């Protein structure tokens, strides 16, 4: 399914609304053409000085057409924009639902993903309002106008038909073909600008520290200049399309005038119908005037549709099939033959390990061994093959939302939202009271007020404070399995030991899997597994309580 087809398919549930909008648009356009044709007849007839009563009906019709044109145009905009905005909301819902599977986020760069979420999704509205309604309205009204002109003068109707086909079909097709290249370049340039800008803003402290800010700023400026250059070329293309349509309209108008004058001289056409014929031809080109610009934009819309489809067609992290409820209380975790990785690189080659119910188990290994990949699979941030059994339920066959009701914890780089401490904690427990929130903050030794703002990405907090806030959020979920991916990485030794003691005390009786590189933490564990060469081996513990 192409990008354009996908966008149109999103509008299918509201096709009836768009049909009504097209009909209102056709009525508004027809009223405009009729208004000018009737005005031509009225002025030409008035020049013959008839009785005023002979013009009264035409005067009333002129007023009626003027009012109808405005009302119909308003209703057309109201109905089509309502349908388009609702379709846009559905498109956003689908994109966000697919992103909730997390895998697309790992496939696209952050700035590129922002561009797909905003500009490319908004292109759905552009297609429906500017690319769908005007052509259909032009098709309906154009046939009627050509029929009227043919009834007045056959050769005039044929000339008008040829002019409308050139201006409303040939010129837009050429504009659409010429706009394909600029559309791709515009999408690429927009993505590059968004990506470099996001990277520069997020990496500003490091760029300044290493004296690389000038180079980063130069990349942003270069990306902006490229986008401006491509946009200028796109504007030139739109201008050429409009100019070509105006040229065709002018030539057709002159042709209609010459044919009409010749017909009047031959006695085949009266002077008053000549005025109607010429001014009807002039009004007819208002029908197709928006089409070249819409066609020129079609390339950009198609490119946006393809990019949007790339997100919507991304395979979700899981393919749920097992309807068995996931355990909500501590249960044995058994991992068998687990294979997983990132991209095309497999880092886990058949991992087997066990976490008995209520046990505290650590996973260690060198950097890049796959420890965080294992945590990502348990969080359902990544897909895998093999079996991950919590009790008798295979988590790999359950939906991410179902799994996350039973498996929670702290990922390696937890996100802190730009809000208060209270709102960050209530992500995990929306109904939690302030007393419960203060209690969990005390358990992780975090001395913060609930109304304190943490700033964008938690920049008002230290690294250790952000980690402890994430720990507090995890404890509020009361999961059957608690997964901690380097939870004390940013803490000093004294605070690290205190926080881990508090955490393990709070997790007493709850299955806990600790992913860490810190060997000093292992004496608190019931079991330790080491991952090397993509496999897990259980290590012997020297303390007397080792191994449950």
From TrEMBL:
Compartments annotated for it: namely: Cell membrane
InterPro entries per the UniProt record, alphabetical? AAA+_ATPase, ABC1_TM_dom, ABC1_TM_sf, ABC_CydC/D, ABC_transporter-like_ATP-bd, ABC_transporter-like_CS, P-loop_NTPase, Type_1_exporter
Give the matching Pfam families: ABC_tran
The ABC transporter domain sits at: 333-548
Q: Quick check: keyword Protein biosynthesis in the entry?
A: no
Membrane-traversing stretches: 21-44, 50-68, 136-153, 159-176, 237-264, 270-289
Grouped into one coarse class, the protein's main location is: membrane
**What keywords sit in the KW lines?**
ATP-binding, Membrane, Nucleotide-binding, Transmembrane, Transmembrane helix
Q: Which PROSITE patterns has this protein been placed in?
A: ABC_TM1F, ABC_TRANSPORTER_1, ABC_TRANSPORTER_2
Membrane topology type:
Multi-pass membrane protein
Q: Which residues form the ABC transmembrane type-1 domain?
A: 19-303
Q: What is this protein called?
A: Thiol reductant ABC exporter subunit CydC
Specify the species: Pseudonocardia xishanensis
